[in-house]
Amino acid sequence: MFADLGHFNQLSIQIAFTCMVYPALILAYMGQAAYLCRHHTMESDYRIGFYVSVPEKIRWPVLAIAILAAVVGSQAVITGTFSMIKQCTSLGCFPRVKIVHTSAKVHGQIYIPEINWILMILCLAVTIGFRDTKHLGNASGLAVITVMLVTTCLMSLVIVLCWHRSIFLAIGFIVFFGTIEALYFSAALIKFREGAWVPIVLAFIFMLIMCIWHYGTIKKYEFDVQSKVSINWLLGLSPNLGIVRVRGIGLIHTELETGIPAIFSHFVTNLPAFHQVLIFMCIKNVPTPHVRPEERFLVGRIGPKEYRIYRCIVRYGYHDFHKDDMEFEKEMVCSIAEFIRSGSSKINGMSEDFDKDEEQRMSVVRSGSIRMLEEDGSVENTVGPSHAREIQSPAPALAPAAGVKKRVRFVLPAASPKPNAGVQEELQELSEAREAGMAFILGHSHVKAKGGSSFLRRFVINFCYDFLRRNSRGPNYAVTIPHASTLEVGMMYYV
Predict the structure, then answer these.
(1) Which residues contact 332 (CB under 8 A, 6 or more apart)?
(2) Domain that holds residue 16
(3) Whether residue 141 sits in one domain with residue 281
(4) CA contacts within 13 A on the Cβ side of 141
(5) Which of 180, 195, 213 is the last residue of a domain?
(6) C-alpha count within 13 angstroms, C-beta hemisphere, residue 132
(7) Number of other CB atoms surrounding residue 208 within 10 Å
(8) What is the pLDDT of residues 427-471, one digit of tens each?
(9) How many domains in the chain?
(10) Residues 106 and 247 in one domain
(11) How far apart are CA 109 and CA 131, in angstroms?
């Protein structure tokens, strides 16, 4: 559980647990069992406990060690809970929560405010509710021995599936360790009604939340994949269908790395128009502190060149600073311009012929080689420095002074060859679209159970999953989206 946190390596944890932690636990439990066997005829159960079994001369030192162990144990519970919640969130088995990375070097050092508050409330509720160390001890004992028993069972699977050892070794391992732990587990179950029920109930509640969220997430993803629009559908769009291309750049946020999301077809079906330049943007957080600017953008093309539709995957490290919307828009447009200048489909040695059955691969685009200059339309564009090439949109017709727009031009590197007519035309259209402005299209999905579904399925999807989705955090976008330029498209998912 703690191996990926970076505090210690895997070998040190294995040695410490095998040589110190596990023998100490077994000896402690065996010592208490021996004391209870010797003094089980006492009239009062008050004297039966851990500190009574400790010799009086070393009772205070043991109490000090126990207090320090409680502090370490509380930190271990918090850190372990954060680690498991983060891993479950990454696997889509737990609702999204706010994760704060407290270290710029170690990816596993995190802080989750919501989970920290929940742990505090649960600890206070259990302590105030029981008001008895005996019940707390019963609950803690069952929780600890259950974790050890489950770990032993999973370890046997690791021996066979991951280490590729003999199945007889796995059986011997689970028989030797599992027999000892099963005895303690059966003894802890006797105290189920005297406080040991608490960890079982809490585990059942969290497992139910995870199962509901995972089930709803899987069904939503399956609907996205099945409803994903094919390239052939995109190629079938023509002016005869009433599709209109308006000026500007349309930026569509999507979580799909391939294909065209169903939200786009829903948008075009109800409003048969989209922008002259369309960008499907997907933001991914990678498990590294920082992503270099020249490796941040992966750009690809969707459909033929004439459609001017691109896909852009933006990668951020967990300690990267997300720039404001204006700076981010500039970098993204420059990365697409660099993709166009570098030969687009030839950038990875691929042919220019477009395959209708599959999209072209993504290409890492080094941003910064092409600069984008924005200036007022009233300022006369002069020919730039002799060592740079400029591509700009044609001068617009005269407009009123109050409606002056910014002119956009791309400055190519001096060492770059002169672009051909097709590349120059594509760059010019991109600059025109940038001048017209950028619109943000967001998808907002509602998941509902299909008609005729069972009562259990309708209850899980329509109530439980919907409640978790509405009260969990949404996906984090890298840009501060201006409300005046945002269009939210709602779509009903029937799963």
Answers:
(1) 279, 281, 297, 312, 314
(2) 3-213
(3) no
(4) 27
(5) 213
(6) 10
(7) 12
(8) 888 888 888 888 888 877 788 998 888 999 999 999 999 999 888
(9) 2
(10) no
(11) 34
